[in-house]
Amino acid sequence: MTQATLNGWEKKQLMAVLRELDPTGKLPEEMRQTKRRGIWQWLWIKTLAARGEAKPQVFRILAKDVSGRGIGFFSRRRLPRGERFAVALRFAEGGGRLFLCRVMFCQETSQRHFAIGAQFLDSVEDDHCDATIPADWM
After folding, report:
1. Which domain holds residue 42?
2. How far apart, in whole angstroms, are the C-alpha atoms of residue 109 and residue 51?
3. CATH number at residue 88
4. In terms of Cα–Cα distance, which of 117, 100, 101 is closest to 109?
C-alpha cells in the first residue's frame, strides 16, 4: 500500500470534505478560537522591515478570510514566519482599520504561490484606507 504525504493545506481540505460526508457528525471540528469569515478580496500590504533589514515592500495579496484574530491570504511572495506587515481592511458595515500583522505560517501551495496566515497585533482606525502607519509599528 502506498502512503501519501499531505501538507497542512491538503489536510485541511481533506478534513473539510470528510466532515461533509460524515453521517455520524463525529469528526473533529476545526480547533480555531474565533470563526473565520470569507472575503476573497485583492488587497495591498506593506512589509515592515526591522532596523537594518531590507527596505519595506508593497505588493498585492488575495485575502481569503479574516477572523477576530487574523487574516488568511494567498501571495506570490514567500513571507517568513515572524515577518510583520500592515494591511488596510474596509468593512461592509462601514468604516475600516489599518492592521499590524505578524506571519504565523507560510505554506507553498503550488509553484510561485503561498498560503499565509497572519495574526493581528495592533490596529488603528482607517475609515478611508489612507491612514499613515504609526511610527511605533516600524
Report:
1. 34-137
2. 31
3. 2.30.110.10
4. 117
Residues 131 and 125: beta-carbon distance below 8 Å: yes
Name beta bridge partners: 58: 46
Distance CA 83, CA 102 (A): 6
Residue 59, strand partner residues: 45
Q: Indicate whether 101 belongs to any domain.
A: yes
Cell numbers standing for residue 115 = 498560503
**pTM of the entire structure?**
0.74
Q: Per-residue confidence of the chain (138 residues) as pLDDT tens digits? A: 444 555 666 666 666 666 666 556 555 555 567 788 888 999 999 999 766 667 889 999 999 999 889 999 999 999 999 999 999 998 877 889 999 999 999 999 988 899 999 999 999 999 888 889 999 998
Give me the DSSP letters along 15-37.
Answer: HHHHHHH-SS--SPPP--SS--E
- Domain assignment present for 6: no
β-sheet bridge partners, residue 72: 65, 117
Longest dimension (CA), the chain: 57
